[in-house]
Amino acid sequence: xxxxxxxxxxxxxxxxIGGIEKHLYLLCNELTRRPQFDVTALVCNTRFxxxxxxSSNFKLVRVASPxxxxxxxxxxxxxxxxxxxxxxxxxxxxxxxPGELAYLLARPESKxxxxxxxxxxxxxxxxxxxxxxxxxxxxxxxxxxxxxSNYLKVSSYLRAFKEKCxxxxxxxxxxxxxxxxxxxSRVEAIRxxxxxxxxxxxxxxxxxxxxxxxxxxxxQVDAKLLIVGxxxxxxxxxxxxxxxxxxxxxxxxxxxxxxxxxxxxHACDLFVLPSVEISEAFSLVQLEAMxxxxxxxxxxxxxxxxxxxxxxxTGLVVPIRDPEALSCAINLxxxxxxxxxQYGNYARNRVEHEFTKQVMTDKVVQLYGELIGST
Length: 375
Hints:
The chain is an alpha/beta fold and 375 residues long. The chain has two domains: 186 residues, Rossmann fold (3-Layer(aba) Sandwich); 181 residues, Rossmann fold (3-Layer(aba) Sandwich). The protein has an eight-stranded mixed sheet with strand order 3-4-2-1-7-8-9-10, sandwiched between helices. α7 links the parallel β11 and β12. The longest helix is centred in the last third of the chain and has 18 residues. The radius of gyration is 21 Å and the shape is globular.
């Protein structure tokens, strides 16, 4: 079989922490295990120096970047690298305007796949100027991958390109979240330290996560909440918790290692995702909690959030920006262990059948094959 050269293009790469970066890392690793693929990832570096890392069938190119613009890393040499790194399939991860503009400038002959992780929501002013370029970019691509069909209904950018869209849900490495002796020991330590019942949130402390509403909901919940993550809103959220007299029941924890994160999932009684904007296009942390057999309380966002967490099957879905609804859903599950177990078991089975990295990669590989076959 001829080798298929695949070029993955994104703003950053592991060990940078982010949902898109984690997805890309898993996808690249799975592709490189399949002998027909020669994979290269092209990303921005976090400093003004280009670095290239090589292994047997994977190359990582971190292009020199002078910094960020409108919150997005950029690199002036991206068009040159897109032209230099010839590939059969170019797979671009949106949102990454510098990469998309680089593609329009370089115009490589590759088949082009885009994974549409989310709309650009917060930088609406900049989108006034960028939207015509994005439209031209989407006109040229061959396929657009969505993690759920829900996002096609809420994205104003994709409606004109519906025929190019295909749904391939995200996948996770379920082995990362199995109970090992080390994880079991950490679970016991977490429970001994914090007691029960225990709620968990994992993610960046940013505006669209809606943590303000979860903290307010905790006034009506007799439990402890662990907030695992970092972000610009941490001081503001700590101040709110103190103002509401919740310092003893809300614990802020820095980002955990893989084993530590698995332990938090297994230690908690349920997982809460109070997100408030469609910037939360899916949320891999839901899948991670579900793979550990935990029910989820999430908000009624018309995105992949409600595609993953099915109301009254894997957990409960409540209106956005509603602390009272959050507290009622949390209390309902805390007071019904059998219901928690029922939802948690269904959640674990759902992940194992529909949201593993193997299932995801199989579908991506099938798409690549269809595009190469159509050449």
